[in-house]
Each structure stands twice: as structure tokens, then as C-alpha cells.
UniProtKB/TrEMBL annotation:
Record's protein name: PglD N-terminal domain-containing protein
Ranges where the PglD N-terminal domain occurs: 4-83
Organism: Pseudobutyrivibrio xylanivorans
CDD domains according to UniProt: LbH_AT_putative
List of catalytic residues: 137 (proton acceptor)
Amino acid sequence: MILGIYGAGGNGKLVADLALYENEAESKWDKIIFVDDVVGVEEKYGLEVYTFSEVREKIKPQDIEMVISLGEPCDRELVFERIKEAGYSLGQAISPDAYVTKDVKIGEGVIIFNCSVGSDVILGDNVFVSEGALIGHDITIGPHGVIGARAFVAGHCQLGEQVYIGPCAVLRDRIKIEDTAVVAIGAVVFKDVSGNSIAIGNPARSMKKEEGYRIF
């Protein structure tokens, strides 16, 4: 089985390091490659680079699974749908050092770095959990969400689809973060955050995102 890491940028390098480390522990994949739409790049960080068109031409769906390294939630969803529509599957990349309780439900394409995920947590399809994040108990994180490095999500929080929680952000217990909302770096959230909003500061205040807003 081949692992294809979709996105060969800086985040891709981090995911490649994670996958190589996991492979040392488990011998999970025969080969690890990058998949990226930048034409003309054949190798990056010591791994071969294929465009998605080349993957479709040269690699059968049963011979490869993919994970998505992109940090922008809306881009994660677009690529996820592209992969699925082409008949390919998504795998999982999980650090051997991560603390993930046995009852955690993990969706397709989920990436988990060295972090802590407590009991009765649901990680939806294509969720990205960064280094040092602390995810409490009885939490749902919707598809295509990104949890930044050293963010803390307390118990019974509910996160919608395409939610971005910035590095070192803190969510108190029983908070609801609606679809496409962003919690900024270091924000401390005491109240629910409505969809398509940004929560900034300590205590966090919410404001609507401008049209065309992107995190990166």
C-alpha cells in the first residue's frame, strides 16, 4: 500500500515526518509519496511528487490511500471530495506517541500528531489534530476541521464542519463552534461562536468573517 500525502508545502513536510515515524513503528505503507498539483516538481523532502492526474494514470485506487496536509479547512473539503469522486480512499496518519483512548471514533483521512484525545470523542472525516493539542471528553469535531498546536478543547464541546481552532486557543466546556467558524491564535472562548465568524482575544469576541476570508 502507498500513502499519498496531498499537499507538498510546509504542512506536508510535517505530515511526511509523522507518516515516516508511524511507518517505522508499524510498517504500515510500502511507499510514501506527495500528491501536489504543482507541475514539474518531481521530488520534495526526499519523497517523490505526483500530480493528482499522474496518480490517476499510474496508481490504481486499491494500491494507494491518501491524507490531506492542507491547513485551510475549505481547501481540505474540496480536496477530500475530489479524491472521493475519483474513486480513491483516504487513510489515517496517527502518531504512535499520541494518547487516543480506545473509544474515540476516527473518520477517514484523519491526521493526529502527538497529542491527547480523551474518551467519547468523535473526530469527523478529514480532521487534522496538531502537535500538543488537548482534546477532552465527550467532544465532537466535525469533518474537515483543524485543531492547532497546543490548543485546548474542554469537555462536551461541539465543533461543526470546517472549523479552525488556532494554536494555543482555549475553549471552555460545553462550547458550540458552528460551521466554518475560526478561533484565532491564543483566543480564550467562554461563549458559543456562530457560523462564519472569527473569535479573537481573551475573553474572545466574535465578528463576522469578511467575504473571501482565508486563514492562510
